[in-house]
Design a protein that fits this description.
The complex is a heterodimer. By secondary structure, chain A is α/β, with parallel strands linked by helices. Helix content of chain A is 65%, strand content 10%. In chain A, α3 runs antiparallel to α6, α7 runs antiparallel to α10 and α20 (559-565) packs across α21 (567-576). The longest helix of chain A has 50 residues, at 51-100. Chain B is of the alpha/beta class. Chain B has three domains: 15-62 and 138-399, ABC transporter type 1, transmembrane domain (ABC transporter transmembrane region fold), CATH 1.20.1560; 67-132, no CATH class; 423-655, P-loop containing nucleotide triphosphate hydrolases (Rossmann fold, 3-Layer(aba) Sandwich), CATH 3.40.50. Chain B has 23 helices and 14 strands. The longest helix of chain B has 53 residues, at 300-352. The chains are: A alpha/beta, B alpha/beta. At the A-B interface, α2, α3, α4, α5 and α6 of A face α2, α5, α7, α9 and α11 of B.
Chain lengths: 585, 662
């Protein structure tokens, strides 16, 4: 929490200081009010001729003070709101920028949903603490101390009563909180659980119906529902004690002060009686203020821990050391369109086993190289190393003769066009999606149309507003194949030297797959293509095929060569096509 | 836990309609609710009566500080007129010494110094002092104290009982709503889920139900008790003194006006904030999910710019709504103080005219707070009732959605063990909505035990055929029969029982591997599970897991999508039904593994009619019958060799994998 407060700038601390000052004035003014109240009370008692005039004067002063304190509170709340919203503005932007610089590794470590919560909910939690806390946290102690100094010498009996009330109130609140707070964590989990079960129900609805498993799901749901209700009942019933106790203590305080006052007055000399009486009225209102401040503190203790947890979650993100560091090379290169792997090995940081071992190969300009292998053979990981979604554990990856680690991200990304397995669409128009990002040249209307033609995305022309057609969040208004083709168009429009297709074609039917590759070949005669695929048909024509098995390269060559020399390749091929078809192809 | 006033202030479309639906749904708890409301009212009434008693108490105490001036005057006149003589008042004899002392003291009194007067008073001779000293009636005070203790005590007890029962009602009600929603999901046609997002339904289940139950337990009672307080204090004020009452109301009136203006102004910022926050969060979610594209397309600058725009937009509305909601408290404080002064000033005037006693002022000091506080609370409760109405509108809207057709009239049933497996599609027509027909005219006959493959480009309607066969959707016209019985004459459960279905999405739920494989067939033994796992080739993987079949399946990286798919295939195999549907069931598995799985499946499907949908043509090459679909129609039928000979659409599709691109 404190660490996050370092995000406050000098100006912000000035605001905090000002808020303290304002709160101090505010409380001072507010505490004057009971003085005037007692003054007015005494005036009423005396029954003198000028009484109503005197009261009017005192009343005006009291109103003035009340107004002044209201204005002070207003200004300090204004600044507190400003502070808390600019805090969340800055921290949110910090986290967002940090996350944008994360690699896959960091992304997986935190998981996307968790990062989303950290950027949204967790910040809101802290913002709330600052907005309310700044006001209350400053006010409560100031109010408490000042109010106590005003009444400390009035009467030992009253003070004892007040202390007793505070102790009683705080111990009740603390006991209930101690019982209830741990349950809140459980409840949060149970809510997640009930959400999870329902999400399962919704996403698996066809499976559930096909298995006639509605009853099975219902039982799972009811169990979660029962648990949740039980826990919520427990916490809420416990919390229901708070309000009556608070009321009875506060009323009890006034009542107690009056009863004690009655006895004190009864037993006092005439000269002390009136003073005692007005003290009694004053004590009641100050005492109330003291109790209120303690309640405020208790409230802060209630929201404090939650905000602290949020703060630590945010700090985790901000402190995360990004493994993949940007290089500095931003000039043009001598070579173009070449990729070379030199003894590349890769494993996940905490894993023992290597995903890739000793991979070496070179791709020349204009060549098409394909990677094939069973699931988990490491083919996707391999090509992820080129745009530095991961960094090698050992060995080197060179693009245009220079180690990828030396490039600036921008320079590298302009050379390498990576198309992921799962097409990603952003909310906006088709056009926005295609021109997304920066490339070596500006993307013109012509480029877009050409890219759409090459990627077989003719369907765009049939859409209502063509290029300006709306793309819904996550591209839900497009089919999987459509998204995939737009995602390819996006990369084509960027004119990279090297295309990387990470299993991009699997979602397309054979015909589209073929036409796309045909057009691509025509359009990008000089560009280098790296293709990861599962279908033999997709890669048969590649200049070079690398066969991967358990992270090792078990064969390099053309389709024909590999059929003869590589058993793994032959097995894969035969699982898809007959011997005869393979020979004829 | 207290809630912050930052929730969406959604406006319901039909406030009273939704609220009346809500109360109708609350019927089972009617008695308890009425009792709670009554208790809340009584408890509020007590807190109005209490100040009255407190003012009685104050009056009693005030009595205790006023010397008996009448008596003093009487003594004074007796002593001055009758000095030296025997003076007997109320049975007390004032001796000559005392009389002398008295005159001495009186002669030194400075009439303008009140303190001097009072201290001289204390020096009066005992006999006189005892006669004129203030008389506090301790017995009266004790009696009032007792009443007050009872009032406060009862009020607290009632308020707890009320709180306890309302919480109970609210939570039981929420539980019922959640169950209802969950059960409703099972009764809705699949069509519904095409047009409704999972997130939306989930938010009804959690957020909306939560809003309803929270507001039910808090705001409803708060609304009623505050209304009682407000009206009650109004009545009491007028009952006690109408001039003072008008003063109090007048003083607070402009405050309230101002407050309502502020409330309506701030509403604008709240709505804007909520919308902007939603937009920003949506953007964050989208960007985090698609960050690979941002990274590889140099999209950081663009993304950051858009983010900053949204973030800065939120800043202003966020600040203003925080400021305005924060101001409410201090403002009400000011109004209450102002009212206090007004009451005191007018009260003092009235006291000086002896119209009222000091106790009345004390009572009004409390009334003015009782009167101003509830308004703030009532305003808050009103807005939360509004969001309750909006939430219940959304919940009831979902619960009232049209359900699947009733199946009560269906009497036929096909026995799982006796069914032969002949399926006929007879001129089937279907569209997901009225405008667009997906399946135009589909006819096909499948013989018992045949392995049928459906192929075709994306959007041709392959999956739709399966949806119709499984009766997930109702066909528009035409017919599908199983062993001559129309599926319209069979219950959905009966049809589902006949089919075993494996889908492309590897749907697994949070639970152990065992739970996921045996699913609702709880009778299946571990041996049987392992046998099936061996067939699909995941037995080694399961054994390598730390807890074997007891390992939990969670959303983590440990299990690849291929393995997940094998689990779902295993689950399908366990079900052991006469028909089999594989809808892209092996697309996440590499072709070599797929081949193994298929061989195993073939063994299992001997004699069973099966349908296979696949993108990869290698998957379906050995099917007995291939139905080639295009634009909702069957364009070709036959087995692989026949279709290749026809040299039509299928052959073209198939051959495109061999075509040279150079």
């Amino acid at each position: 929490m404190i660490k996050l407060l370092k995000n406050f700038k000098f100006k912000d601390w000035l605001i905090v200081l000002m808020c303290i000052l304002l709160t101090y004035i505010n409380v001072q003014l507010e505490l004057k009010i009971p003085d005037y109240m007692s003054e007015i009370t005494t005036l009423i008692q005396t029954n003198s001729s000028t009484m109503s005039h005197d009261i009017l004067v005192q009343g005006m002063w009291m109103t003035l003070f009340a107004f002044g304190s209201f204005i002070c509170a207003g200004i300090s709340i204004y600044f507190a709101s400003k502070l808390s919203s600019s805090f969340s503005l800055n921290v949110r932007s910090k986290i967002f920028n940090k996350v944008e610089s994360f690699g896959i590794e960091e992304m997986k470590k935190f998981s996307t949903p968790s990062l989303i919560t950290r950027t949204t909910n967790d910040i809101t939690q802290i913002e709330m603490l600052i907005a309310m806390g700044l006001h209350m946290m400053l006010r409560a102690p100031i109010m408490c101390t000042l109010a106590i100094t005003k009444i400390v010498n009035k009467s030992i009996e009253w003070s004892m009563l007040l202390a007793g009330c505070i102790v009683l109130l705080l111990s009740v609140i603390l006991t209930i909180l101690l019982i209830v707070l741990p349950k809140f964590k459980i409840i949060q989990k149970l809510i997640d659980r009930i959400n999870g079960v329902t999400r399962e129900n919704l996403t698996g609805i066809r499976v559930i119906r096909a298995f006639n498993a509605e009853k099975f799901q219902r039982e799972r749901f009811e169990k979660a529902n029962d648990d949740l209700t039980k826990n919520q009942l427990f916490t809420q019933r416990s919390l229901a004690i708070l309000s009556p106790v608070m009321n009875i203590v506060m009323h009890g305080l006034t009542f107690g002060i009056y009863i004690i006052g009655a006895y004190l007055i009864y037993n006092s000399m005439m000269s002390e009686k009136i003073e005692l009486f007005s003290n009694m009225v004053v004590f009641t209102s100050y005492g109330m203020q003291v109790i209120m401040s303690f309640l405020m503190l208790a409230f802060i203790f209630m929201i404090g821990p939650r905000a602290a947890i949020s703060a630590s979650r945010i700090n985790e993100v901000l402190d995360e050391d990004i493994k993949i560091k940007e290089g500095t090379y931003n000039k043009d290169t001598k070579e173009h369109g070449t990729v070379e792997f030199k003894n590349v090995s890769f494993k996940y940081p905490d894993a023992d086993e290597y995903i890739l071992e000793n991979i070496s190969f070179k791709v020349n300009k204009g060549e098409t190289v394909a990677f094939i292998g069973s699931t988990g053979s490491g083919k996707s990981t391999l090509i992820n190393l080129i745009p530095r979604l991961y960094d090698v554990t050992s060995g080197e990856v060179l693009v245009d003769g220079i180690n990828v680690k030396e490039y600036t991200f921008k320079n590298l990304n302009n050379k390498v066009g990576y198309i992921p397995q799962k097409a990603v669409m952003f909310t906006g128009t088709v056009k926005n999606n295609i021109t997304y990002g920066e490339s070596s040249k500006r993307v013109s209307e012509e480029d877009i149309n050409e890219a759409l033609k090459v990627s077989q995305a003719d369907f765009v022309k049939k859409l209502d507003k063509q290029l300006d057609s709306h793309v819904a969040r996550g591209g839900t208004n497009l089919s999987g194949g459509q998204k995939q083709r737009l995602s390819i168009a996006r990369t084509i429009a960027r004119h990279p030297e090297i295309f990387i297709f990470d299993d991009t074609f699997s979602a397309l039917d054979y015909k589209t797959d073929l036409n796309l590759r045909k057009e691509l070949k025509k359009y990008t005669k000089d560009s280098t293509n790296l293709i990861v695929a599962q279908r033999i048909g997709t890669i048969m024509n590649a200049d070079k095929i690398l066969v991967l098995d358990n992270g090792k390269c078990v064969g390099v060559g053309t389709h024909k060569e590999l059929l003869k020399s590589c058993d793994v390749y032959k097995e894969i091929a035969l699982s898809q096509l007959s011997e005869e078809e393979l020979q004829n192809a | 836990m207290p809630r912050m006033n930052s929730r969406v202030q959604e406006k319901p479309k039909n406030l009273f309609g939704s609220l009346s639906k809500l109360f109708k749904a609350l019927k089972p708890w009617k008695v308890l609710i009425i009792i709670s409301v009554l208790l809340a009212i009584i408890s509020s009434v007590f807190s109005i009566i209490a100040p009255n008693k407190l003012s009685d108490l104050t009056d009693e105490i005030t009595e205790g500080i006023k010397p008996n001036t009448d008596k003093l005057m009487e003594i004074n006149s007796l002593i001055t007129t009758n000095y030296g003589g025997p003076i007997v008042i109320d049975g007390t004899t004032i001796t000559i010494e005392d009389q002398t002392k008295y005159l001495e003291i009186v002669s030194t009194i400075d009439m303008n110094d009140r303190n001097d007067m009072l201290s001289k008073f204390d020096k009066l001779p005992k006999s006189i002092y005892n006669l004129v000293k203030p008389k506090m009636n301790i017995d009266n005070i004790k009696a009032i104290a007792l009443i007050l203790i009872i009032l406060y005590g009862l009020s607290a007890i009632f308020s707890y009982i009320q709180g306890y029962s309302m919480t109970t009602i609210a939570n039981k009600f929420a539980k019922k709503l959640r169950s209802d929603i969950s059960n409703k999901i099972n009764r809705l046609p699949l069509k519904f889920f095409d047009s409704h997002e999972t997130g939306d339904i989930l938010s009804r289940l959690t957020n909306d139900v939560d809003t309803m139950s929270f507001n039910l337990s808090q705001s409803l009672v708060s609304l009623i008790s505050n209304l009682t307080l407000f009206l009650g204090s109004l009545v009491m004020m007028f009952y006690t003194n109408y001039i003072m009452a008008f003063t109090a109301i007048g003083a607070s009136l402009f405050g309230f006006l101002f407050m309502f203006i502020m409330l309506s102004k701030s509403q604008k910022y709240f709505t804007r904030k909520q919308k902007e926050l939603g937009d920003l969060n949506g953007y964050i979610e989208e960007m985090y999910s698609g960050y690979i594209v941002t990274k590889t397309c140099n999209g950081e600058k663009e993304t950051r710019k858009e983010f900053d725009k949204l973030n800065n937009g939120l800043y202003k509305s966020n600040m203003m709504s925080q400021f305005l909601s924060g101001m409410m408290g201090p403002f009400m404080g000011f109004i209450s103080n102002f009212g206090y002064v007004a009451v005191c000033v007018v009260g003092a005037l009235l006291v000086s005219k002896n119209t009222i006693t000091f106790g009345v002022i004390v009572a009004f000091m409390i009334y003015i707070r009782l009167f101003t506080n509830p308004l703030n609370q009532i305003a808050q409760a009103m807005t939360s009732m509004q969001s309750t109405a909006a939430a219940s509108e959304r919940v009831f809207e979902f619960l009232e959605e049209k359900e699947m057709n009733s199946q009560k009239h269906i009497t036929k049933k096909l026995d799982k063990n006796k069914v032969k497996g002949e399926i006929v599609f007879d001129h089937v027509k279907f569209g997901y909505d009225e405008v667009k027909t997906i399946i135009k005219d589909f006819s096909a006959k499948v013989k018992p035990g045949e392995k049928v493959a459906i192929v075709g480009p994306t959007g041709a309607g392959k999956t739709t055929m399966v949806n119709l066969l499984m009766k997930f959707y109702e066909i528009n016209s035409g017919n599908i029969t199983i062993d001559g019985v129309s599926i319209n004459d069979l219950t959905r459960e009966n049809i589902h029982e006949l089919f075993c279905m494996v889908l492309q999405d590897t749907w697994l739920f949070e639970g152990t591997v065992r739970d996921n494989i045996r699913y609702n067939n709880l009778k299946v033994t571990d041996d049987e599970i392992m046998e099936v796992c061996k067939i699909v080739g995941v037995d080694h993987f399961i054994k390598s897991l730390p807890h074997g079949l007891d390992s939990m399946i969670e959303d983590n990286e440990a299990i690849s999508s291929g393995q997940k798919q094998l689990f779902t295939i295993a689950r399908g195999m366990i079900e052991d039904s006469p028909f089999l549907i594989l809808d892209e069931a092996t697309s996440n598995v590499d072709t070599r593994t797929e081949e193994l799985v298929q061989k195993a499946m073939d063994k299992l499907t001997v004699g069973r009619t099966s349908f296979i949908i696949a993108h990869r043509l290698s998957t379906i090459k050995n099917a007995d019958l291939i139905l080639v679909m295009k634009d909702g129609n069957i364009v070709e039928t036959g087995n692989h060799n026949e279709l290749m000979k026809q040299n039509g659409f299928y052959a073209e599709l198939y051959n495109s994998q061999f075509e040279k691109i150079n």
